[in-house]
Design a protein that fits this description.
Elements (H helix, E strand, L loop, with lengths): L6 E10 L2 E5 L9 E4 L12 E8 L5 E4 L10 E9 L3 E5 L6 E4 L12 E8 L5 E4 L17 E10 L3 E6 L3 E6 L12 E9 L5 E4 L4 H18 L3 E2 L7 H8 L3 H13 L3 E3 L4 E3 L4
Parallel strand pairs: 13-15
Antiparallel strand pairs: 1-2, 1-4, 2-3, 4-5, 6-7, 6-9, 7-8, 9-10, 11-12, 11-14, 12-13, 14-15, 16-18, 17-18
Helix pairs in contact: 1-3
Length: about 280
Amino acid sequence: MIEQGKMQLLEAVRKDRQGLYLNAKKSDDKNGVLLPRKQTPEGIGIGEEIEVFVYQAAEERLLATIKKPKLLLGELAVLKAVDVTIFGAFLDWGLEKDLLLPVKEQAGRVVKGGSYLVGLFINSRGRLCATMKIYDLLSTKSPYKENDRVHGAIYNINQDLGAFVAVDNKYHGLILNNELYGNYAIGDKVEVRVKKVRQDGKLELSFRQEAYHEIENDAQKILGRLKMDGGTMLLNDNSAPEQIKTELNMSKRAFKRAVGRLLLEGAIKTTDKGIELTWKD
């Protein structure tokens, strides 16, 4: 059986001026799929097998190529947009004809020259197309455990949940909103910590280190800010989480934890309006 979108071994069944016709081994069909003459290796004979990639050409017939594209059916890959039109973007996937990323399959803005993590699917017309909607293409069977450091790409951002990450371009990952600090966009590469491996195998991720490391880092950040601001800060336990995140780029929970550490060490004191250094360099 000939499968579009995959590398496969096919048998040479006949030749003509156009090229070599290939089909699945032991098939009686002599029509098969055409491997154009300019790509046919010299000396290959009828009955011999050759590895090819199969795709649908513009004239709605299947063609074979000996070139292996950068993306196969069932895989994910980062591809560069070489052109953007009203119909969609065209991506370089290593073949003569660029791969279409239809507008309805885009997640976020796509620009010429940008690189995007995409999967491959066959549309209703039987053509191979790219999609940025890759949630269902990701695996839950990652090798990672809690506190492992991993790399991935942000492929979607949900204002209510957080940033969806394709870890290693193949595994499900999510940075929840309360762990998302700074400004990020679709396509950004991230290095994060596995905060939790859920029962379904999906990974909850965090930009932050383990708590005992973060207390020290956050305490140093607060001390540095106090010194810059003359020894006082208008933030305390009653401050809104949004205000703390804006001012210090940390959660309220992390702020309270770090302030508690500094209070124990006698480095700061609390006031009605915020906190103050008890000593200055």
